[in-house]
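Example record used in the benchmark description.
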Amino acid sequence: KLNWLNAEHLRKKSDEELLSLLKNEIIHSQFSNLNFTDEYLMMVINAMKERVSFIKEYLTKSPYFFTSPAEYEETSKQKNWNDETPSQMQKLIDAFSKLENSSKEEFEKALKQVAGELNVGAGKLIHPLRLAVSGMSTGPGMYDLLSILGKDEVVKRIDTAISILK
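Model output (structure tokens):
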């Protein structure tokens, strides 16, 4: 009940207050040596606002916004990563690399186009893609996550996942 109450209290705070609290939390974390723009942190706040009860959970529940995944969730790996996944992810790299605008809509359009070319449902790509870019099976909307991280970071993370998750 206290967690719920704290979550409600947090959601009532203004974006500016949340930004200040998050910056303070980052200063006292393993990410203290990294610099993030206010604009970037506001996107993270908006993506995660409904998923956190405490400020520290912005870092613990979504570390992928602050650093590339160092490991990949085992259950998701077993469920969503198979022999054909690396070639499918490579096709996403090719499509994402051509994006001029890394908006949610552009990522979604590119993913659906690749899914169509591969004759698979979008979900067949979304789950391994989420694992590749976040190392986790949960989080904010996939296209929100991609647009916040940006094209270059997304492409780099997919490429890393392909080489690690062989």
